[in-house]
Fold this protein.
Amino acid sequence: MSQPHQPSESIVVLDFGSQYSQLIVRRLREAGVYSELLPFSVAPEKALALSPKGIVLSGGPNSVYAPGAPQLPSWVVESGLPVLGICYGMQLQAHTLGGSVEPASEREYGHAVIQVQASSPLFEATPEQQPVWMSHGDRIAGLPSGFTAVAASSNSPCAAMADEERRWYGIQFHPEVVHTAYGQQILSNFVYRICGCEGDWRPAHFIAEAVERIRAQVGEGRAICALSGGVDSAVAALLAHEAIGDQLVCIFVDNGLLRRGEAAQVVETFQQHLNIELIAVDAADEFLSALAGVVDPEQKRRIIGEKFIRIFERQAREIGDVRYLVQGTLYPDVIESTAPDRNVAAKIKTHHNVGGLPADMQLQLVEPLRYLFKDEARAAGLALGLPEDWVWRHPFPGPGLAVRVLGTVTRERLDTLRAADAIFLEELRAAGLYRATQQAFAVLLPIRSVGVMGDGRTYADVIALRAVTTDDFMTADWARLPDELLARVSNRIVNEVPGVNRVVYDISSKPPATIEWE
Ligand code: XMP
């Protein structure tokens, strides 16, 4: 297992279950201070090993007085560290230290305006009156001793409280969401003016440290890495290569389900541009024959997942004496898998990740991105020389185009989809809107429709275009692409892709739809 990151300073965020908990950590890192999200029940030694200079208590869905509601751990009170409680975190401070919390007569949800009533380092460099984002049903009815109210809103007489001597602060609103206009300033005030952080968190420092850690873990051993064509595995491979050079072998399995030009680009970028040894396996025939006649999406996923593992194992055996497996696991995946108290969304699709390999391979995992958010991994990728268009590439599902060719997957149908998809992405880029959407692609439907071309009737394939905007891929909205762009794409597809006579645009959000159609 990879060594934990050992920062010289940090802010520990204790997770009480808010949907915004991860965002707090991201904002603190954007402010230049390393931060980790830990379950509220974390062992104190684990939290203190991060050399925290302060603690943030996240929001959460509970009421502090409800039976079984998570309570403030005593080590937080005993630590003597500055503490910022956000929403539920603030109510916990009040509840624990002798104040009182009660249901508000009106729930406060959404925009509100607070009035800062007393000077406090927490609100330094912010105006007296400022817009914030609230989301709470309870409020502080009585302040704990030592605290004074420092801000109010029309619904919350105590929208912020402070015990300056103890350096404990509570805010009812969410500074981590963009709707709180001075939220980033408030978080910066907490980490710099109150906790006295130095602010040494930079992707460049991270790279040097990650390289050292990989060297320490792998030593003289041999490691392999499965490249998927996505940004995470590429950045993990680059870091590992920087650390152990030719002891790393990258394997790229072309499953025949990739977008146009993608396989060639992976091989060229790695071998020629980055000078990294790469074994490229052309396994398109194997995958396509295993998928022959399969219609069910979950069965497609299973077949592709298993096939990938078998091919990967075969390659690893051929290389021989491999002891380590480099993977591009990111911090949000780590948080989800180590936070049993959070309500993990029901599994709608089995997301087979190309990196997900069976435990019986007995390889030790090297996960250099384990503590990084996607935007930090991208910054590291750029610093390591990964081309810009690769770094900003939309995510692509492990089962690839097999779940975008609805119904049976054949070479011919894949070619039709690839051609349509390439036109869509080309036009989206030309319109300067590729990065304004988080995922955009074409889908080949399993039906045909009637059309007319020239003087003749046609009965041909239908392409659906899907483009979404999203922060986290858990929820998404359909992208409002300009009419002219959609018209151009549609025109080009029916004219340039043989066998397609109709193009539709998907206007469903997630939920209730999902981003992919299968
Ligand atoms: P859905 O369709 O569930 O997709 O809204 C959410 C995100 O996950 C990607 N996705 C997958 N990724 N294997 C993957 O590695 C899969 O089987 C898979 N299915 C969906 C999807 O592209 C989107 O980014």
User: Anything to note?
Assistant: Residues 340-347 have pLDDT under 50 and may be disordered.
